[in-house]
User: What shape does this take?
Amino acid sequence: MIKLRKTNSASWNGNGLGSDTADWVVVGNENIALKKLGSSWFAIDTSPYAPGELSKKIAKADSKKVLVKILSEKLNKEAS
Assistant: This one.
């Protein structure tokens, strides 16, 4: 299983604006960030790419727990 490190804490944006979830990165692969966008969680590679590309989506899931499981499987496949 992979380990995560929190980069930004959850925050309250004020009345009517709701809140933001915490941001996470994978320990040992700090270029891989986990973020909640809308109702889904995404694993995003934040390494610099060709001009015009900001980031690359690695995986998507409905919950952070499922996303960590999917990402862990993908990283284990790459390592072997």
In short: Helices lie at 64-79. The mean pLDDT is 87. DSSP finds one helix and seven strands in the chain.
